[in-house]
Amino acid sequence: MMDRAAEETVDSKTDAAVKGEAAIKQRFLTTKEKFHEFVDSEWQSLNGGNSTKDEKSADSNETNVEEPDAKKAKLDHEDRNKDRKADGKRFRGQNKSRPHTKPTTYEEKRLCLSVFKENKECPFGEKCHFHHNISDYMSTKPADIGERCYLYEAFGKCAYGLTCRFAKAHTTPDFKTLENADVIKACEGKTSIKNSLSKDLQNRLRKHSVDFKKSAEYLKTLSNNKEKSKQQGNGDVGAAEASTGEQQPPGAQTQVIPEILTPVKTVGPLTDVDVIKLRPCERKQVDFNDKLYLAPLTTCGNLPFRRVCKRFGADITCGEMAMCTNLLQGQQSEWALLKRHESEDVFGVQIEGCFPDTMTRCAELINNNTEVDFVDINSGCPIDLVFKKGGGCGLMTRTRKFEEIVKGMNYVLDSPLTVKIRTGVHEKSNIAHKLIPEMKKWGISMITLHGRSREQRYTKLADWDYISTCSKLASPVPLFGNGDILSYEDAVKAKETGVSGIMIARGALIKPWIFTEIKERRHWDISSNERLDILRDFTNFGLEHWGSDTRGVEKTRSFMLEWLSFMCRYIPVGLLERVPQRINERPPYYTGRDYLESLMASQHVGDWVRISEMLLGPVPKNFNFLPKHKANAYK
Q1: Which of 196, 275, 454, 485 has the smallest CB count inside 10 Å?
Q2: How far is 142 from 149, CA to CA, in rounded Å?
Q3: In the record, which residues are listed under signal peptide (predicted)?
């Protein structure tokens, strides 16, 4: 009897160990040790025996990260404490204080800009720290990555000249840069990137000389309304005391909610301002219904990645979350998040803030200086840095400020205003259904609801039943649902809830071809070579966006590695025992149908670096990379 009980215990533990794993055909399954032994030996043979057996461990030292262990099933209370810190908290979340290496540090000494522009006189003279002798620079420059330059082939000339890491394609033996006149003429007059920050606007923002006329009108009206409500409140208190004959206790007030008045005159002669001002029905309209919306993704949702997703059928794209205060200060890095490629036909920007004055001014700044189809308010960001100051999810609990922000932004914008929210702040206390009817009154053009609370993060599945309820409350305002979409079957089920459209976030990072699958209603058993071609497209777009010099190459590599930390979770359709793969199912260790497919399945940072080296050449000696997330799904 004891033996049978022991066997049953072992069986139950075995079942628990595989609980939550994706079902893969038995012949592809392997162990962690055998998987890495296979990947390392094949890589060594493909590289002509130049790689050492300790290469991956060296990569781990360079990147300062170990591969996460396989995620374990939920344990009993006693066993659960073994996987906790001394203070009882679990190991989870982000890798804080990641090492930040500036791309400029990858070059010992750069070429002076004066030589680069063929202007032999350097304004810094002998104090200049850069190379002025081309021969000296070329002797220290890292080796070229390839024989073909994407920028030269696409635009007829490479703006990075001798510093380009593909300079052989457009450089003569005497270090002169070649140009293709026919291609240059064909590209003449075309502007592929919009919404760049001009030096003039940046200087005016830094000197606080930008005129926010419409914002000033709204904020003045808002201030007057608050004063008026204060006076009304005091009058109501006096009236209450007179009628009851009782004195109100100290500090007690009768709360009067001020209504935001429209500062347009309704009495008197008709002025030019009245004629020119757009009425709500005359504003720019965007048809949001039945569209596939690529979510604004911090870090990974950059312009080159959005271009990849547009090729696969994403209908709506949105820039990464930008802080309104940084935009108002003219920070170049923050304005880069607003850039738009010509292929993005329906494009919006997402801004975060917690005060009506800064958000209204930022909206007016965007309205006057960029080309966008809509502006989105981030009211769903869960990170502490944003939440604790009242932004992101914090706005959902500050409805008075939220209303003032929405009405102020609507007053200064000529394009639709949208908002992205969560179910609520706390896991078992949904509040979105209370906010949505109010937001309809405030003038929101579209609402996106992520089916999780701030507290919940990604520990449980998105609540699509609740999204369905909120969709009915939002009608006729479009409501997009977001959460756990990884296949066209998931998208079909989501559409059945009655939402106007679907927003896709992690699903697009894991498999950007998900938009094609949804539109063609099929499972795409994409090959490893096709996936490598996608990464090659991203590489070319990255070199175009960030540059083809060493600085641009390493910046492209870092963003590719961030993306590969998600992409490695994809399991090819042909290997699955049960189709489709669920987003909450972690992949077990498996070998693919070819070596590249196996390499792309690796959860080790060293193997991601190897993939990047196939496209961007060897990493520099001082290269360092630590993933943003600790991959909680695999711990």
Answers
A1: 275
A2: 16
A3: none
Across all residues in the chain, what is the average pLDDT? 83
Q: What is the pLDDT of residues 265-321, one digit of tens each?
A: 455 565 554 555 555 556 678 899 999 999 999 989 999 999 999 999 999 999 999
What radius of gyration, in Å, describes the C-alpha atoms of the chain? 28
pLDDT at 254 over 50: no
Nearest to 253 by CA among 241, 267, 242, 265: 241
Tell which residue, 342, 370, 463, 292, has the closest CA to residue 350.
370
Among all chains, which residue has been given the structure tokens 């593909």? 166
63 in any annotated domain: no
Note whether 285 and 307 are within 8 A (CB).
Answer: no
At 489, which amino acid appears? Answer: E
The residue written with tokens 């996987």 in the block is: 83
Residue 368: inside a domain, yes or no?
Answer: yes
Cα–Cα distance between 409 and 126 in angstroms, integer?
A: 52
d(C-alpha 569, C-alpha 590), whole Å: 12
CA distance 623 to 629: 19
Look up residue 329 and give its two tokens.
């200060």
Q: Which residues are catalytic?
A: 381
Q: How confident is the model at residue 79 (pLDDT cuts 50, 70, 90)?
A: very low
Whether residue 402 is found in the same domain as residue 328: yes
CA angle, residues 414, 213, 393, in degrees to nearest 5 = 60
Query: Of 483, 503, 522, which residue constitutes the final position of a domain?
Result: 522
Residue among 479, 477, 518 at smallest CA distance from 497: 479
Domain extent at residue 625: 525-634
Closest CA to 260 of 228, 225, 235: 225
User: Largest Cα–Cα distance of the chain, in whole Å?
Assistant: 99
Q: Which residues pair with 131 in a beta bridge?
A: 111
Give the per-residue pLDDT at 104.
Answer: 67
Task: Extract the tokens encoding 336.
Answer: 């880069």
Q: What is the DSSP letter of 627?
A: -
463 or 52, higher pLDDT: 463
The CA distances from residue 396 to 381, 420, 421, 526, in Å, are 11, 10, 8, 41
pLDDT computed for residue 285 by the predictor: 84
Please name every residue paired with 282 in a beta bridge, in sequence order, or none if there are none. Answer: none
Q: Residue 397 — very low, low, confident or very high, per pLDDT cuts 50/70/90?
A: very high
The closest of 440, 372, 434, 454 to 406, measured between CA atoms, is 440
How far, in Å, are 23, 122, 522, 570 from residue 531 at the CA level?
22, 46, 17, 11
**Rounded CA gap, 549 and 510, in Å?**
29
Region for 119 from its dihedrals, namely left if φ exceeds 0, alpha if ψ lies in -120 to 50, beta otherwise: beta
Domain count for the chain, please give it: 3
Judgement on whether residues 406 and 466 belong to the same structural domain of the protein: yes
Between the alpha carbon of residue 359 and those of residues 124, 323, 324, 401, 541, the distances in Å are 41, 9, 6, 11, 32
Angle at 145 between CA 140 and CA 151, to 5 degrees: 105
The number of angstroms, rounded, from the C-alpha of 600 to the middle of its chain's C-alpha atoms is 22
Q: How many CB atoms lie within 10 A of CB 160?
A: 24
pTM (2 d.p.)? 0.85
